[in-house]
Predict the 3D structure of the following.
Amino acid sequence: MSAVSRTWDQLTLPGKFLAIVVPLLALLTIGLVLVVALFGGAIWDIVLANLPAVRFVVAVTALLLLSPPIAFVIIYMEMKIIALMNLRIGPDRVGPWGTLLSTVHGLKVLMKEDFTPNQADAVVFTWAPVVVFATAILSALVLPFAPGLFGQDLNLGLLYFFAVGGLTVVGLLMGGWSSFNKYSLIGGLRSAAQIVSYEIPLTLSVVGLIILAGTLSLNQIVQQQAGWFLNWFVVRQPLGFLIFLIAATAEANRTPFDLTEADSEIVAGFSTEYSGMRFGFFYFAEYIGVFIISGLTTVLYLGGWNAPFELPHIALTIDVGSFSGWLLAIVAIVPVLGTLILALPFFLFRSKTRWWVALIIGFVLFNVLAGGLVGLWAYISFDWVAGLFWFLGKTFALVFVFVWARGTLPRVRVDQLMSFAWKWLLPAALLNLFATAFAVVVAGV
Amino acid sequence: MTATLPPGTHASADDPNVLLQDDFDSYEPIPPYPPRTEREAEFYTLGDGEMYLNMGPQHPSTHGVLRVVLKLDGERVVDIDPVLGYLHRGVEKLCENADYHQTISQVDPLEYVSSLFCEWGPVMAYEKLLDVQVPRRAEYIRVLSGELNRIASHALFMGWFALDLGGLTPILWSFIERDEIVEMLAALTGQRMLFNYFRIGGVNGDLNHEFLSRLGDWMSRAVGQIESNTKLLNENEIFVRRASGLGVIDTDMALKYCMTGPNLRATGLPYDIRRAHPYSIYPEIEFDVPTRTEGDSLARYLLRMEEVKQSLRIIDQCLEQMPDGPIMAKLPRLLRPRPGRAWAALEGPRGLYGAYAISDGTDQPFRLKIHDPSFIHLQAVGALLPGHLLADTMAIMASLDPIMGGVDK
């Protein structure tokens, strides 16, 4: 026993970690192999019998797994872009160009103390971030990322999106109410007033589009916008698009409508008393909210996964089997040869470059080239890769718009916010709706 | 919990024992003593649907350590109770126990963003006590460095004001200008912030090459830079709508509150000490006194930006007319002014900086009273805030541009 404990004490921290994790992983692998070997057929039958339920579980799990990376990317984007707008450098220490900084922030938040104020309503206080995060994930469920790449294709998709997205306000109110802090309370009440007010123009601005599309299913709305970019609904509904974008900014609590966490007025709004991962959930939910609302705008008005122009369809058929034995040779030789060929010019034409530096440059260049080629091949061969490319491109362009607004605009006041929603956005949305209905009924567009 | 307190006392957030208590009421920002005045009794009685909100002394945007207890009805401010003194250092008392030269470094950190003006007032008062003629070159250097400091202070104001309205970018843009000015003043004086540069009878050091080359560099692009910085705010619909009609002060009210400087000139009265009671070499220099008539936050902001342009004009003329000669008057090491009293006033970035010095014939001032514009202007907050929304409290306070170091002294 003493020998074991002495050995254990001699291990370093990573060693201790591996000593626990590696046997566990090995056991898990053996168990999984055994389960699949023994009950594989039965499990597959069950999966096939309950396909919708399985699809739901897999989609939610995938979204839960994907949401932190998406949030990290957007947080990094925000830090870096606002820094450049502020004429600062921004994150540049952790990872190349500081790209890992937001990830490290996430880890830091995990390790911080999870503090509950003395007088707070502990149960509500704990569940508020869960509600906010869960609604963000659930509303992403109907978002079509690419052909065949979506959580659920509900025929009431848009309605579901607004219904679930509207639940966010419950979480914010819970957080604001239970924190035992007046700043939190004011932040929570502000968010309630704001989201409830902007829900109306947000929903009304889409009704015109629904009349044109004749469906609430997000997948079908995207399919109707296929082809040339003039088919996008933004061309037929420019006013609706504008109203939707403004109301969506307010819905996502982003500048210039970020009254709920106005740091110069009410410190941090509803999240003033939160710390640790509970604050992290609020933070993640905000950025996932930005991604989702940008994604929805893309889906509704900017053609979703469709390319802005019709590309000639190239049928690329590479029969890997026909290479037979040569495949191994290609896989073995091409990287080495490519690295050498790409490194050669740097070595030959720049006398200062050492041979190993040239080799590194060549290796990196080869990887970039090969990655690009594989990406191109995937783009041509798979519909969902092309769709995902365009969807993410458009969505992140919209995310950039949100970040841009944060970098340039001051915050509006509460009464201005409300009067803008009720006096300008709502009549404009109604005008848009009636004009669309008129055009459809009379002119038969 | 009330049983543990002596009868007739309230629990307060100021009371350290309160941290041990779990009672809800103990967290109200009520003073731990019975109300001393009618006003206090009125403020610390809640009406229907009202609540207290304790803002500061630690708050993201109180510009130092100002504590304001707000009485809110929803988001609307009903009444406020500013609590001062968190930065009180007893500067005036310290000055009574330091000799005349040492007081300069004591008054330096009063308004820490415009230290040169804090030094200038007492120095000018002492010069009047001693009846010293300051060399002309020293006066020019004082005006030159003072106007640079004025621009630095206004740059900071612009950034803070925008930050309090929720804009993130302007403060960093304006800090580029401010940093360049502060660096060149550091080349001249040796410090970036608390310069300790003016001396009784002159200045500490002559203009040097680094200062002049930095100044020349900066002057060649200053106008364009400042224009591009202000464009981000001046042409922003949200900013203009937020700031206009906010905290309106009319001339009568401004005079009633003894306001000076940009806050007074924004109401339409062109009262500038540099013109009304000329001092130093200002009579020889051409510049305008910009005014605006609206008297709201936006007018105060725009007026300060106008003043920056006038300061640039003054700096240009100073550089052109800079005479040769000594930078210090001939004075003994130990100063013993004859008994008497002297008042000196000058136009700082926030208004009238005054110093009232009394000498009893020893080497220490018998009394040095500092008249600080921040303190004067902050008094108006009590009249301006009620009726506005919570979001505007910080914006109104920022537009008056108080510096807590000067308020609490």
